[in-house]
C-alpha cells in the first residue's frame, strides 16, 4: 500500500514532513589557532618593595634623571599599536635604521618599569609614517607604552606621491587619512600630548601637474584638534625638485607655477595650524635654491611653519 505524501499546492513537501526529515550532521568547525605575541605583564615582574633598594631611597627627581640618562643610550624603540609597529624616539630624534625592541633594565621590578616608562613618555615622540608601520609576527611589547601618553606625535608623509590630486586639488591619501584617524583614536583626555608635527617629503614634481592653478585641502588634519591640550603644531614640507627644460618661456611658466604651488600650500598649512592652536604665536622659515645642470634647472624648496601657544 503506497504511503500518501503531504504535498502543498506547489508540489513540495509540507513543513511538517520537512521538519521530520533527519538532517545530516555537519562536522564541527575548527577554530583558527590564535598566535600569542610575547608581552610582559606586571604580574610577572618582581614586586620588590622600594625599601629593599638604595636606589629607590633617592628622591624621585634624581631617579628620573637616571632614567633620562639610560634612555638617551637607547633613543629609538619599535612598539606595536593596533597590530602594527611604529617608531618611538626619546626626544626629537630622527628614527634610526636599527631600532631596539627591548629594554631589559625595565624588567628589574614593577616600580622601575612604571617610573622608567613614565620618564620615556614625558620626552618621547611617536612617529606615524605612511611608508612604515609593517606587521610583524612576534616582537617584545612594552605593556604601558601607548601613543596617547607620549609628549609629541609626528606624522610623516614620505610616499613617492605624498598627496593625491583630483580636479586641481591636493588632498591626503587614504592611507594618510587612516594614520590621522589612528592618531585621533590614541588620544586620551589627560592632556599628555602637547605637540603635533606633520612632515611632507616630496620627490621631483612634474611641472605638468602645476600647469593649472592648484589648491590644497588638508582639512582631515583638523581631526587632530580633538586633543585640546596641544600647545604646539609644526608643519614642514620639502620638495626635492621641480625640473623643466632650458626654454626661457617654459621657465617663466614653471616659476609662476612654483609660486602658486608654494603659496597655496603655505596658506592651507597656516589655516590648519590656527585651527589646532587658536591664538598661537606663528613663525615660519623658507629655504629655496636652484640647481642647474645638463640643460635643466630644478628648485629645491623647503618650508617650515610652527604655531605655539603664547
Automatic annotation (TrEMBL):
Which residues lie within the region annotated Disordered? 1-48
Q: Where is the composition biased (Basic residues)?
A: 26-36
The superkingdom listed in its UniProt entry is Eukaryota
Q: Where is the composition biased (Polar residues)?
A: 9-21, 38-48
Name the record gives this protein: Uncharacterized protein
Amino acid at each position: 500500500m503506497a504511503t500518501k505524501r503531504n504535498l502543498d499546492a506547489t508540489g513540495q513537501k509540507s513543513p511538517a514532513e520537512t521538519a521530520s526529515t533527519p538532517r545530516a550532521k555537519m562536522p564541527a568547525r575548527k577554530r583558527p589557532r590564535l598566535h600569542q605575541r610575547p608581552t610582559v605583564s606586571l604580574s610577572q615582574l618582581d614586586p620588590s618593595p622600594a625599601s629593599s633598594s638604595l636606589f629607590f631611597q633617592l628622591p624621585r627627581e634624581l631617579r628620573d634623571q637616571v632614567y633620562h640618562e639610560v634612555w638617551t643610550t637607547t633613543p629609538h624603540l619599535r612598539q606595536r599599536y593596533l597590530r602594527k609597529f611604529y617608531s618611538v624616539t626619546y626626544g626629537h630624534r630622527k628614527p634610526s635604521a636599527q631600532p631596539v625592541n627591548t629594554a631589559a633594565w625595565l624588567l628589574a621590578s614593577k616600580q622601575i618599569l612604571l617610573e622608567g616608562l613614565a620618564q620615556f613618555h614625558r620626552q618621547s615622540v611617536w612617529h606615524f609614517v605612511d611608508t612604515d608601520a609593517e606587521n610583524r609576527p612576534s616582537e617584545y611589547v612594552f605593556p604601558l607604552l601607548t601613543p596617547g601618553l607620549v609628549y609629541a606625535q609626528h606624522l610623516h608623509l614620505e610616499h613617492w606621491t605624498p598627496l593625491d590630486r583630483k580636479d586641481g586639488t591636493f588632498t591626503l591619501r587614504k592611507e594618510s587619512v587612516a594614520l590621522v584617524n589612528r592618531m585621533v583614536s590614541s588620544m586620551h583626555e589627560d592632556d599628555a600630548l602637547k605637540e603635533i608635527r606633520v612632515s611632507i617629503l616630496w620627490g621631483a614634481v612634474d611641472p605638468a601637474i602645476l600647469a593649472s592653478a592648484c589648491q590644497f585641502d588638508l582639512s582631515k588634519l583638523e581631526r587632530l584638534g580633538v586633543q585640546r591640550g596641544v600647545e604646539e603644531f609644526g608643519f614642514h614640507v620639502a620638495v626635492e625638485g621641480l625640473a623643466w627644460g632650458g626654454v626661457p618661456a617654459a621657465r617663466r611658466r614653471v616659476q609662476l607655477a612654483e609660486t602658486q604651488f608654494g603659496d597655496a600650500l603655505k596658506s592651507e598649512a597656516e589655516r590648519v595650524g590656527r585651527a589646532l592652536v587658536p591664538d598661537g604665536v606663528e613663525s615660519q622659515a623658507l629655504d629655496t635654491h636652484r640647481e642647474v645642470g645638463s640643460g635643466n634647472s630644478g628648485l629645491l624648496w623647503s618650508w617650515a611653519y610652527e604655531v605655539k601657544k603664547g
